Amino acid sequence: MSGGSHSASARAVTPVVVSTGRNGGGGGAGRMSATLAGEVTPQRVSVTVVATMKVLLLCWRDSRHPEGGGSEVYLERVAEYLASPAGGRHDVTFRTARYPGSAPVEHRNGVTYVRGGGPLTVYPRAWLAMLRRRFDVIVDTQNGVPFFARVFGRGRAGRGCGVPVVLLTHHCHRDQWPVAGPVLSRVGWFVESRLSPWIHRHTPYVTVSAPSADDLVCLGVDRDRITIIRNGVDAPPELPQDAGDAVPSGGVHLVTLSRLTPYKQIEHALHALAVVLPDHPGTVLDIIGDGWWSENLRQCAEDLGVTDNVVFHGHVTEEIKHRLLAGAAVHLMPSAKEGWGLAVIEAGLHGVPTIGYSSSDGLRDSVVDGQTGLLVDSEGGLITALAGLLDDPERRRELGDAARERSRNFSWDLTGESWKSLLKRIHRPRR
After folding, report:
1. SS3 for 140-171, per residue?
2. Which segments constitute the Glycosyl transferase family domain (predicted)?
C-alpha cells in the first residue's frame, strides 16, 4: 500500500504468494498471504535468488605496480564490474605481487586486492593461497607463465569437484622471452608453448584480439575453447578547451603511452623524432609511462641529440594522461608485440590516429589500417608515415575523426558483461 490516506470503502486486495524455490515443511512454508477484504484470487510470484560467486583473479601485477600496464587495467576493470550491482555483486579477490609501498590487503571499488611475493615468488604464494581457500571460479592470467590454478585451485561445488578455471592470455610471448636471459627464456617458452597448453587442454581460454586467438591455435589450443573479449575504455574526464597545453610548446606534439620495456621499442619513436625535426622544428615527443628501461631511453634521446624535444612524464594521473593525449597530433606505438593496444583506443577518444607495426598482432585488430591509423612494416616505414602525416594535417584529421568514432564503440561495461556471461556458463553451483 502507499503511504498516503486510505479510502473509507473496503477494497479487495490480491494476496501474494511468494515462492522461495525451496521445499518447506507442512507445504505452507515459504509462502505468505495477506487479505484485507473481499474474495481473493491467490497468485504465485516466483522470486529468483541468484547466489553470488567467490571469484579469484590471478595476475602477476596490478595497475598500481611500477611495471603495471594495459593488461593489468583490463583485469581490474573486469574485477570491478563483477563486484558491481550490474555484474552480480560477486565476492571478488584479485591476487597479485607486492611492490614497494603497497599494502598486503586493499579494498578498492568492491574488489579485495591481496598482495604477496615478488616477480617470481608471487606464484608459489598464490599456490598456497589456492590450497587454503575454496573458490567458485578462478581466472588465471598467463603473462608468459600461468599460475596453474587448474592444478592448485580448489572448488566449493562439492567434495571431489575441481574449481572451474578460465585462462586469460593477452598475447603469445615468444618475442619477449629472450629478455629474461638464455636459461630462463628457454624454460619460460617451454612452459608457455608446451606445458601450459597440455595442462589446460580442457580449459576455456580468453584473449583480447583475433590475432592473439590465432597464436593460441598455433600453440595447440582448440579454437572452440577460445573466447575473444576485447578491451573497454574509460570515458575521458571533462577537459577544458586548453587541454592540449599540458606541455608548453609552439610545435606539434607526438605521444607514446606505454610501459618502458625493450619490446615496446620506444627507441623507434625517438629515431623518428630525430629524423622529422629538421623539417618540423619544435616537434615534441611526450612519453607517458615508466619502467625499468627508462634510463636506456633517456640515454638514447641524449645520443640522438633530441633531449630538449622529449618529455619523460613517467606515471601520471588520468587527467594529465588525457590532457597529453588530447594535445597530440599522432600517437606512436612501435611495440614489437601487443595483444590489443589499449592506448590506441584511448588516443582515438581524442581524435588522435596511431602509427604502429603490422607485425604487432593486436594492432591489426585495434587499428583499422588506412582508416583510424597507419600500420607499417619497418622502422623506415614508421618514419615515412609520420613525416607524411605531419606534412598533411587534413589527412591526419580524417584518420583522427575515424579513430574517435570507432573508439566510442568500446566500453568496460560491454567487456564486463561478456565476462559475467562466460563465468556464469562455467560455474558449477554448490550441491
Report:
1. EECECECCCHHHHCCECCCCCCCCCEEEECCC
2. 254-406
- As a residue count, the chain comes to 431
* Chain CA centroid to CA 120, Å: 22
> Using N-to-C axis directions, what is the helix angle for 393-407 and 379-391, rounded to 10°?
110
Are residues 110 and 80 in contact, defined by beta-carbon separation less than 8 angstroms? yes
What's the CA gap between 290 and 293, in Å, rounded? 8
Grid coordinates of 422: 562466460
Each residue's pLDDT tens digit, 393-408: 999 999 999 999 999 9
Domains and CATH numbers, the chain: 54-232+412-426 (3.40.50.2000), 243-407 (3.40.50.2000)
Eight-class DSSP state of 373? E
Q: What does the alpha-carbon distance between residue 96 and residue 66 come to, in Å, rounded to a whole number?
A: 13
Of 52, 100, 92, which is closest to residue 75 (Cα–Cα)? 92
- pTM here? 0.78
